[in-house]
Specification:
This protein is α+β, with helices and mostly antiparallel strands and about 150 residues long. Helix content is about 15%, strand content about 40%. The strands form 2 sheets. Strands 5-9-8-7-1-6 form a 6-stranded mixed sheet. The chain has a 4-stranded antiparallel sheet with strand order 2-3-4-10. The termini are far apart.
Length: about 150
């Protein structure tokens, strides 16, 4: 079994171990349908900025400690994994393969994205591409969570 990693470039570049998943907002009651997801990751200087990653729809979401992630992939050949890289599109992972046959057949266009930090890692299965945005800590604090909107 082989898991293929396709790095996604994020600007500014940073070591994944210098970042943490800071906040996660996932709604199943969004206006207009969809299950939007927004994740905020601290950057090396969390006093000044965060990386906001948003999906207009996310089918399946998992947060997993990096320690358990590395043991999940034990014995699996990893191709394309770059040391200390943060964002990936992935093919053939155990997480993808563990989903129901119904999901994999009904969502053939779904993609597995993985965001790796020094602690928590975020896996997202979705049919949409992520959007990346650097926001200030002041903008993060001023952005209230409203049910159904992220």
């Amino acid at each position: 079994m082989t898991t293929r990693y396709f790095p996604i470039e994020v600007s500014p570049r940073f070591l994944c171990t210098a970042s943490e998943l800071y906040d996660l907002r996932h709604s199943y009651a969004a206006e207009g349908g969809g299950n939007p997801l927004v994740a905020y990751f601290s950057l090396p200087d969390p006093q000044t900025s965060f990386l906001k990653i948003s999906f207009t729809h996310a089918d399946i979401v998992r947060v997993l400690d990096e320690t358990y992630l590395s043991t999940e992939e034990y014995g699996v050949e990893s191709v394309g994994l770059v040391p200390f890289h943060f964002a990936y599109r992935i093919e053939g992972s155990r997480f993808w393969n563990s989903q129901s046959e119904f999901y994999r057949d009904s969502r053939r266009d779904a993609v597995h994205y993985r965001f790796i930090t020094g602690g928590a890692c975020l896996d997202v299965l979705t049919t949409v591409e992520p959007e990346f945005e650097i926001i200030s800590s002041a903008a993060f604090e001023a952005a209230p969570f409203v049910e159904g909107k992220v």
